[in-house]
Amino acid sequence: MNLVCHVAFTHIRARARQTFVAMIGVATGVGFSIMMAALMEGSQEDFIRTLVNALPHVSITDETRSTDPQPAETVYRAVAIQGLKPEDGRRGIKNPAETVAALEGWIDGGVAPYVAVRGIVRVAGREIGVSILGLDPRRDRRVSNLHEQMRQGRIDDLNTAANAIIIGSRLAEKLGARLGSRVDVVAANGTRMQGFVTGIFHSGVRTLDEGQVYTLMRTAQILAGRTGYVNEIRVRIADPMNAREAARRIEARVPYKALSWQEANEDLLNAFQIRNFLMYTVVGAILLVASFGTYNIISTITHEKARDIAIMKSLGLKESMVRRIFVVEGLVIGVLGSVLGWTVGYLLCLGVGSIEFKSPFVDASRLPLLYHWSHYAIATTVAVLASAVAGYFPARKAARLHPVEIIRGAT
Amino acid sequence: MSNGTPPGEVLIRARGLTRILPGTVPVTLVRNIDLEIRAGEFVAITGPSGSGKSSLLYLLGLLDLPTSGEVTILGRDTAEMDEDERARVRLATLGFVFQFHFLLPEFSLIENVTLPMRALGQRTDTEMVDRAVAILDTLGLKDHARKRPDQLSGGQRQRVAIARALANEPPVILADEPTGSLDSKSSQQVFDILQAVVDEKGKTVVAVTHDLGYAARMDRRVHLVDGAVAEIVDQRHAAA
Predict the structure, then answer these.
(1) How much is the average pLDDT of A321-350?
(2) Who is most buried in A88, B93, B131, B208, counting CB within 10 A?
(3) Interface contact A316-B84, CB threshold 8 A
(4) Residue-wise pLDDT tens digits, B75-122
(5) Do A411 and B58 lie within an 8 Å CB cutoff?
């Protein structure tokens, strides 16, 4: 065995207990880092997956990013118009069938038109505000998972009765509605009809399950009071992560606002970034604290071994060789501690993953965890680097020891 | 002869060697020493406590740097060498024996003796172990080869220190009061070994000693007073 490793391993063997304590420090840091990363990324991924499955990847609405300039403003620079009254009601998307067909021509995914109306549902005097979404059952399959979320009935059942509606599971509970129940539906413009429940869905997202009602497009158009009216086109693309770019390209081709799911949930995603920053700061701090343990043990060894270092240098060992001995000791603590930390991290994940809980927002019953090799690799890299640095500083000091001073002191 | 060096050839030459410890009150350890150490010699450095014996030995062994003057080893001026080069010269050319054995306590005798060989890196593992066992055998320690230093007596430890000094077959052994911490019997054994190293192996030994009896039996005696050479006595001629 090479001299550096030989001396380093002998030192470690001779201080097995201290070395083990330092390793436990590193293992704890690595273990908690792995658990934290699995928990944070798991919850983030679970949340995003739920969001992506429940919402359109890109939503094209009959709005524009900025108000259209008034004709007078475009002609006369000096003109400024104030106190404009917004147009009453939404205009709808012009030529929706052509727009959908044009988008289907180049988008890698599905495109479907919708009619979105605000309204309330009323049963036995109980009123609940809802979003009513008129859809085409045949096309909806291409852009949403509603067909998979049906707990009772099918989407196609919307075609089996007049004024058929599908309601969320929580809304059904609140209303006491079941399949075949009749509920009053009132649109924001006052149009009312008696809806017939042909299906109950459960998305797992509370806001949808208790506030979303699906119906056929033509039923929604009646509620909106406008025949042939389409005010939203939903797009689902093969890779949801490309939704932002897809929305940008759509906006370049159609004169309406295209909102990606990322933009619609910008605040949430920013919150995730802040949360991740905080997580990695905490994880870094844990590993830094663990590296102090390594620093401490290497410092102690170099202090105790000052005489041996002087002897080795007097025999002819170079400074770099002496330095490497103690860096190797730090690395050994870092590597062995990390390997132990993998087990600690995995067990912590199993433990945390087995805890049951109730969330008011989603219907998950256990903490979502993401098991990924990168968590182990990152924690190990940071821990080993921290241990190497922790070993380096006392090693450098040890290598600079003047042998004569130590020998004179010893004699 | 030692490493092919003809007897009488100058191995170490010191010229105007001075070492002053800096500080608010600078202390002169060694003052303007001129000295030549020749191949095959057994040289004693004597003098009262604080006369600079060990300091001179450390300067000759490149463990310390002179404030002024120069040390030449095997014809090479060491003044221009960096620390790594000096370490290399110590490893290949010089062997050290200190008053206290200064063995590495966690290592077995074989590991202690092979340490300089491992650092030099010119032998295989098997060759290093075989050589270490052979040296320990000549010093009567073969049966203890797997033991650790704390399982040996003081005299045995000092013999291991000599074995370690001989590991790389250096032409010069520098010994700093090698018998200083031993009882008379062990001292005699250690002195006899060093004598044999000179007589039988053709090495050069420079030993700091307080013991004038041993000093009188060496080839030359360099006597220091207040850091300067008071006299150099060639005792071979005196014996003749």
Answers:
(1) 90
(2) B208
(3) no
(4) 888 888 888 899 899 988 999 888 777 888 888 999 999 999 988 888
(5) no
Nearest by CB to A311, from B88, B102, B118: name it. B102
Chain A nearest CA to B240, separation (Å): 37
Facing residue for A10 by CB, picked from B84, B106, B118: B106
Give pTM, 2 decimals. 0.68
Q: Is the dihedral of CA A221, A226, A231, A235 positive or negative?
A: positive
Is B106 in contact with A319 (Cβ distance < 8 A)? no
Which residue in A316, A403, A410 is closest to B119 by CB distance? Answer: A316
Under an 8 A CB cutoff, do B90 and A316 touch?
A: yes
DSSP characters over B169-215: --SEEEEESTTTTS-HHHHHHHHHHHHHHHHTT--EEEEE-S-HHHH
Beta-carbon separation of A314 and B61 below 8 A: yes
Q: Chain A residues contacting B, CB < 8 Å?
A: 1-3, 6-7, 10-11, 13-14, 307-308, 311-321, 403-404, 407-408, 410-411
Q: Could you read off the pLDDT of B112-161 as tens digits, one per residue?
A: 999 999 888 888 889 999 999 988 888 888 888 898 999 988 888 888 99
Expressed in percent and rounded to 5, the helix, strand and coil fractions of chain B are 40, 25, 35
User: For B87, which DSSP code?
Assistant: H
Lowest mean pLDDT among A50-59, A191-200, A235-244: A50-59
For the stretch A155-200, pLDDT in tens is: 999 999 889 999 999 999 888 888 988 899 999 888 999 999 999 9
- Measured between CA atoms, how close is A343 to chain B, in angstroms? 32
Half-sphere exposure of B214 (CA within 13 A, CB side): 26
| A236, pLDDT greater than 70 | yes
